[in-house]
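Page 37, continued from 36.
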């Protein structure tokens, strides 16, 4: 099963994705899901994606599901 990474197409998030997108070994295990920031928090809470640059406020709602 591939790890689902939320991908926000904003310049400010470029560094978050850089190493993931340039390494051929990681690309085989990842699936990028394009979305806007307003959808990201709900997608994480509903477990539609496994990782992404979520807001700090959303992390409080995640409890012990993520580190």
């Amino acid at each position: 099963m591939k790890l689902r990474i939320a991908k926000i197409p904003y310049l400010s998030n470029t560094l978050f994705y850089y190493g993931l997108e340039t390494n051929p070994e990681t690309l085989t295990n990842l699936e990028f899901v394009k979305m806007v920031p307003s959808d990201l928090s709900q997608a994480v809470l509903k477990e539609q994606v496994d990782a992404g640059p979520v807001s700090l406020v959303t992390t409080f709602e995640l409890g012990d599901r993520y580190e």
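The mean pLDDT is 84. Flag for discussion at group meeting. The beta strands are 3-7, 30-34.
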